Amino acid sequence: MSGRDLGSGEGSRRSSRWWGLLAVAVTLVRTQLTTARGRTLATILVVALTVANLVLVTGVALALADEGEADHDADARIMADDADIHGSVTGVEPPRLGESPDRAERIADRDGVDHASPVLREPIRVDTPDADGSAYLLLVGVVPGDEPSTVAKLPTRGLEDERAPADDAALVLSRTAAAELGVEPGDELALEGAEHRESATVGAVEDGPDDEPPVALVHLEVLQSLSGTEGSGLADEVLIWGEDAAIQEGAAEAYPDAALENDGAADARALFGDGLALATSILSLVVALGVCSLLVATTAGMRVEADRRTLATLGAVGFPTESRLLVVATTTIATATAGAILGVALGVVGIRVTNALATATVAPEAVAALHPLLVPYALAVAVVSTLLALPYPLALAARTDALAEVGR
């Protein structure tokens, strides 16, 4: 027989032995679910509750970090990529989207899309009638939808002001802008455009971005008229509310060369830019690793003590120590993995319940965010915790005296 045949036979026997050990481990897990159900379920529940807590706390941290990133509550936005296609003065201003009102309307007409609004930003001088107050505000032009929304961190509901005269535009001012002008809801203002003035009425004063320049919302057509862009329909971006699939199809049809950014999902990178959120997530990670490792080690050790006769029997029929340790490690990892999967499901449910309770009581929006990376992250933490816990049950299993246990 050649050396190649000998090597092949040895590899086949080694593979069969490993598969046999895994089969023994799976059988042992199934047996524990009936004969030692309490200890097995205890391990599963310990891991599940720890992982669920990790998912929930990390989701809260993600929401906390992502809160300062977006200035709107849209599900996606379209940004100009190519200045030559989307209309811009090259070298003077960033590229903008052209024909935005018509194209946004086509997007909004699709099934699955709730609303689409072009957004135009222009610095405009705003005067009070008595000329006592005057300031340059960053006016943000939007098209309000049927449902309330947030743009530039200001709610759009104040753009429909019944107190305003028919010829007046309605403004939603941030508190910073209102304080600088010294005005309140119902006051009249004058907007100084490039070629004409526009009368306006303060429809609402809202909490806005206090750490940014004074900002105000206005109807898109008013701002386009003031800035002279109504003919080309220029806009900085188009915000879209609706379902992901419908948004992608509508954006691809309306602006095939523009960039579509999904703003509905939390940005995991924002976590590293927020000190409090990062500290919260790190603390939850340390607690999850520590608590899960200690409790898995304890419950796995209890299982090893209860299974000493089974391990001794394996030794008596010829399984070496390393093979018995592999069985212990496999059963522990399999049980912990089951707990981790259950924990991820509980964590997702916990985030949804927390958001529902928060928005129904004290919070204006979700306080915890779901992110696809939370699933592999939580599973990885559970696996690492189990690996950290393994030395204790393995040490107990290695000290099992086969002759003494079989003779009992």
From TrEMBL:
It comes from the Archaea. The chain crosses the membrane at residues 16-33, 40-65, 282-304, 325-349, 369-390. It is a multi-pass membrane protein. GO terms for biological process: lipoprotein localization to outer membrane. The keyword Transmembrane applies. Residues 284-400 form the ABC3 transporter permease C-terminal domain. InterPro entries: ABC3_permease_C (IPR003838), Lipoprotein-release_system (IPR051447). Keywords: Cell membrane, Membrane, Transmembrane, Transmembrane helix. It is found in: Cell membrane. Pfam families: FtsX. GO terms for cellular component: plasma membrane protein complex. This is ABC3 transporter permease C-terminal domain-containing protein. It comes from Natronococcus amylolyticus DSM 10524.
